[in-house]
Each structure stands twice: as C-alpha cells, then as structure tokens.
C-alpha cells in the first residue's frame, strides 16, 4: 500500500511589516492596515508573529506555495527578508513570492544571495507611475530574472487616466524579455460588494477593451468584477488547498473571511496547530461582500481555467 503524496497548499500571508519608500495615492494599505514612512513594525509583537508564522510555514508536512505580503515594501526590511530567505531553503517550500515596487531589489538580492535559494523566489514587481522611474524598475526586474533565475512579473494597474503609461510599461517589459501583467486598479475606500463601482477605470467607455489591448487578461478582469460584486454561494477551493493568514497569525479560508470577521480556522501561534484541510475541492463561499484580491477570486471554480498549476506565482495568469 502506497502512501498518498500530500497535495501542495497555497498560503497567502500578510505580515505586519509597514515601512514603504514610496507614497502612492492609490495604495490599498490604509486605515488599520496603513503603511508607514517612519517605522518598519508598528508593534513589537508584529515582528515576533512574523517570525513564528514563517517558521510554521517552513515546517509544514504539505508542500507549500507561499506568497508573503506586507503592508509596506518588503525589500525595505532586512529582518523581513532574512526570514523570507530562510523560507526559500526549506525543502517543502516550492516557491516564495514577494510583492515589491522593485526599487531596492538589486541591492537586497545581492545581500541575500549567500543565505537564500533565489531560484525559488517569485517577484511581483508593480510599477507606480509618478513614484518610481520605469527604466529603473525594468532594469531591476531584468537583473533578478537574468542573474538569479527568479520568476519575475512586471505589473501595472489600470486607472481611468493612465492607459498611455501602462502601454509604456508593457512595451518596456516586453523589450526586456520580461513577463508583463496589467490589473484593474481599485479604489481602496470603496465599500465591499459594490462591484465595478470599486474600479475607477470602469467609468470609461470600453474599459475592458482597453485592458485587453494593453496586454491584460480580459477573462481575468471579468472574473474580478464578478467577484467584487459578491461571491456568496459560488463554489471556491479556498479551504481545500488555499488559505490566508492575517497579521495576527490567524488562519482563514481566504482574506475576505478575515475582512468580514468570520470565525478563523485557528491560529498559527497556537501550539500544535495544523491546517484543517477540507477534503472536498469545491465548497460554497459563505462570506458577505466580494473578493477584492486576485489571491482570493482565482480560487473560485469559474476562475480555475485561468490559474496555471505549474507556475511559481499565486498571482500570475498566462495572459
């Protein structure tokens, strides 16, 4: 009798690291989740929790595909990066994805080289027009891809007035031999469940045509808009092989369950905690409101054709 191979688990963890070297007006880190220009960790326990959660992830019996999110800029925090580097060395961790503005990437990767398996690193690099020089972002992305073999995606957000800038980013990424993605930019102050009203570009005529022309995945955008309206009752695999961990170490089926203050599955900080993996792949969503995050709505059954299973990224779709 053979022992079944444990299925890979996708884990999206948002840590309490807050310092950011940019000041983007469209940043989604607001309110209690606000970034900072002054401190790296607002509360000492946030740093301790991060260390505990990363250690827990790295010692799971299941293979793990991990996206380490922050409230600020991860490459601005040496402590954050040291633990992320440790995670890349763990045999059960298939990849570690970081979301960054790219500015500090070359400098920090050189420092991490001796203490990390950078080939396991996936970088989701978003260019923020008006905050960062596009050429610098492209060079940083190419450096990570060519020097260390990182899986790199150059990302841009489409708003109602920046199509020309997104086109420049697309052309520069393609000229540099880099993957390019364009997503819908959200209004972080919009209430949940308002659908397209949370997406400023949807005020413009032919917005999805524009997104497709810029290299975006129209089917993905349509799924995002549907998810933003409401996912309640829709079949989703979150809780089967995908989970969300919040800044306090609490584990939820997805980030919307956390945002809606639904009961967590438990806490990583509790001694002996193990993920209660649901046997059934699909189960109806019970959360109010809608999915505002790609990491969530890509778990919906309607989005399953869009998610490549073998790509080392929790956010990439092969557009």
Task: Summarize the structure in words.
With 319 residues, the protein is an alpha/beta fold. Helices cover 28% and strands 17% of the residues. It contains 9 helices and 11 strands. Helix 1 runs parallel beside helix 2.
The gross shape turns out to be: globular
- What is the averaged pLDDT score? 92
In sequence order, what are the helices and strands, one letter per element? Answer: EHEHEHEHEHEHHEEEHEEH
Largest beta sheet: what is the strand line-up?
6-5-4-3-2-1-8-9-10
Helix proportion of residues, in percent?
25-40%
Radius of gyration: 19 Å
Query: Could you describe the largest sheet, including whether it forms a barrel?
Result: 9 strands, mixed
Uncertain spans: none
Number of strands: 11
Strand content: 15-25%
Q: How far is the N terminus from the C terminus?
A: 42 Å
How many helical stretches? 9
Q: How does the helix and strand content classify structurally?
A: alpha/beta
Detail the topology: elements first, then pairings.
Elements: E1 9-14, H1 44-58, E2 64-69, H2 78-88, E3 93-100, H3 105-112, E4 121-126, H4 134-148, E5 151-158, H5 163-175, E6 179-184, H6 207-213, H7 218-229, E7 235-236, E8 242-245, E9 250-252, H8 255-259, E10 266-267, E11 283-284, H9 294-297
Parallel strand pairs: 1-2, 1-8, 2-3, 3-4, 4-5, 5-6
Antiparallel strand pairs: 7-11, 8-9, 9-10
Helix pairs in contact: 1-2
């Amino acid at each position: 009798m053979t022992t079944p191979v444990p299925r890979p688990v996708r884990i999206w963890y948002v840590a309490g690291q807050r310092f950011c070297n940019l000041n983007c007006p469209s940043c989604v880190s607001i309110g209690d989740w606000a970034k900072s220009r002054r401190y790296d960790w607002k509360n000492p326990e946030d740093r301790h929790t991060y260390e505990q959660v990363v250690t827990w992830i790295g010692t799971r019996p299941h293979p793990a595909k991990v996206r380490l999110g922050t409230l600020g800029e991860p490459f601005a925090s040496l402590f954050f990066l040291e633990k992320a580097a440790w995670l890349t060395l763990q045999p059960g961790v298939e990849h570690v994805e970081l979301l960054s503005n790219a500015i500090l990437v070359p400098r920090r990767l050189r420092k991490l080289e001796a203490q990390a398996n950078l080939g396991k690193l996936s970088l989701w690099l978003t260019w923020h027009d008006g905050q960062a020089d596009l050429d610098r972002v492209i060079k940083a992305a190419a450096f990570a891809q060519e020097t260390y073999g990182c899986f790199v995606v150059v990302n841009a957000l489409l708003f109602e007035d920046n199509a020309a800038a997104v086109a420049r980013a697309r052309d520069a990424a393609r000229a540099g031999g880099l993957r390019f993605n364009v997503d819908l930019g959200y209004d972080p102050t919009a209430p949940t469940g308002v659908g397209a009203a949370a997406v400023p570009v949807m005020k413009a005529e032919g917005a999805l045509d524009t997104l497709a022309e810029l290299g975006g995945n129209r089917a993905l955008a349509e799924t995002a808009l549907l998810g933003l309206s409401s996912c309640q009752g829709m079949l989703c695999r979150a809780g089967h092989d995908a989970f969300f961990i919040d800044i306090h170490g609490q584990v939820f089926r997805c980030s919307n369950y956390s945002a809606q203050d639904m009961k967590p599955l438990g806490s990583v900080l509790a001694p002996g905690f193990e993920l209660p993996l649901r046997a059934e792949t699909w189960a109806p969503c019970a959360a109010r409101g809608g999915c505002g995050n790609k990491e969530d709505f890509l778990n919906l059954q309607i989005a399953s054709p869009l998610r490549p299973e073998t790509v080392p990224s929790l956010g990439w779709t092969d557009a």
